[in-house]
Write a structure and sequence with these properties.
Bound molecules: adenosine-5'-diphosphate, magnesium ion
Distance between the termini: 29 Å
Mean pLDDT: 88
Low-confidence stretches: none
Largest sheet: 6 strands, mixed
């Protein structure tokens, strides 16, 4: 949050443009953080289509989260361009762009306010009924009902503890109530309990329906069915395609997938069948 609040305000266009289409195109995008010597991203080109899930995978530090942060213009590209519906995002008003994009990031920001208000933050015009519908879709209803003050429970007060998975589902409810056409998910690393994991996956499904989705996933099982998988390593896009196409190529994704499958086998054998991956 600090990072976002303290970022220099970005330049606003003189003649702001709008768009009704929401496919995202990265064209030769390079980016480096101010204090960094090597580029975090180097000439990255790909598209994320409407009504599709585009997954981004690759080793840690490769530049996946940087891609996610460039779409809502937390930073501007150093070279190249990002277009939404054919319009360079630098030609859109930043507030307009923010309305187009919902993101669920690794770190969830909850405020010391009621659960109702924390979810409504996604859309200040949402009615209580709409907030509750979003909470239900995001699989929050069950844990909220168990709280003494239900939706009026103030987050962060004494005796109120929400698990990582519950916090993330509140963030998903917030994104559902916002109902933006573009969804960016920067998936948290696996939660420890499988029950939560399953609920989060169902919540994601509700959120992603009919949107342009860019999903950064750590567990390859969750992106196996993505329409497109983009493999990023050390700031470079090294391959892209469907799961089956990429496996057939026997490149980086093939290696990652085999390692992942081995790791699952190892976990299953060690725990006697239990796994949350
Ligand atoms: P990934 O999400 O794939 O793990 P990131 O996009 O977070 O990778 O990071 C890509 C590179 O940029 C890494 O070398 C990382 O250390 C660096 N980086 C990420 N965020 C910042 C930042 N705010 N300031 C400086 N360097 C950063
Ligand atoms: Mg990351």
């Amino acid at each position: 949050m600090d990072e976002i609040l303290h970022t220099e305000s970005l330049s606003q266009p003189k003649n702001p443009r709008t768009t009704e289409k929401h496919e995202i195109i990265f064209e030769n995008v390079s980016f480096s953080y101010a204090e960094q010597e090597v580029d975090a991203l180097s000439r990255v080109s790909f598209s994320a289509e409407e009504n599709q899930i585009t997954a981004i995978v690759g080793p840690s530090g490769g530049g996946k989260s940087t891609i996610a942060h460039l779409i809502p213009r937390f930073f501007d590209v150093t070279e190249g361009s990002i277009r939404i519906g054919g319009v360079d995002i630098r030609h859109m008003n930043t507030n307009y762009l923010m309305e187009k994009v919902s993101f669920v990031f690794q770190d969830v920001f909850l405020f010391k306010q009621s659960i109702m208000e924390n979810i409504r933050m996604g859309n200040q015009n949402a009615t209580n009924e709409q907030v509750i519908a979003a909470a239900k879709a995001a699989q929050c209803q069950e844990f909220i009902e168990k709280l003494h003050n239900k939706y009026d429970t103030i987050i962060g007060t004494k005796g109120i503890h929400l698990s990582g998975g519950e916090q993330q589902r509140i963030a998903i409810a917030r994104a559902i109530v916002k109902n933006a056409p573009i969804i960016i998910l920067d998936e948290a690393t696996a939660f420890s309990d499988p029950e939560n994991e399953h609920l989060i996956q169902s919540a994601f499904k509700k959120l992603m329906h009919g949107k342009t989705v860019v999903m950064i996933a750590h567990r390859l099982s969750t992106i196996r069915s993505a329409n497109k998988i983009v493999v990023i390593d050390k700031g470079h896009l090294i391959e892209q395609g469907t799961h089956d196409k990429l496996l057939a190529k026997e490149g980086k994704y093939f290696t990652m997938w085999n390692m992942y499958v081995k790791m699952l086998d190892w976990k299953i054998n060690r725990k006697g069948g239990e796994t949350n991956a």
